[in-house]
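Before going further, it is useful to explain how the protein records used in this thesis are read. An example of such a record is reproduced below.

***
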Amino acid sequence: MSPRACAFFFATRMSKARRPKGSTQASRPKTAHEQETTTKRRGELAELAFVLKAASLGFGVAKPYGDSERYDFIVDSGQTLSRVQVKSSSTLLNGLYRINAHRRTAHGVVPYDPSEVDFMAAYVIPDDAWFIIPITVTTTRTSLLLCPHDWPRGDGLYGAYREAWHLMREPDGLTF
């Protein structure tokens, strides 16, 4: 099992261990609170998987105090610091994985801006794949559709960013 999948496996095993004996996940519908908690937990697990993957690739990773910043982590390549927003998806939508590439405001959703975030690290959980996308590529979009590894029609708009960790080592973040 890969180190990235290990964090998800451990958390899944722990959440199953807390269920009452004899209960199953499908035994009753989830309440709105339980669904929100599951989504929040999945995001937290994706952040843990990001830290594990980035650190295993030799990056320094720092988490800002609190949750007021637009980014989740600061990644240090030794040459440059990058502000990274981590997102995840585990559900197919018409054969593609949808990632929310926005933040919420009182007036709706707003795409991330290059003055706030440098990269979006999108984790496709079932494929155990990371897309390291410069935020300059997503500034006009509030959601992204990412192709599964075996997508028959090619890599889509963001295939070039699959496992593109090297972009965070480049001073401008855009060199391939």
About this structure: Confidence is low (pLDDT under 50) at residues 9-25.
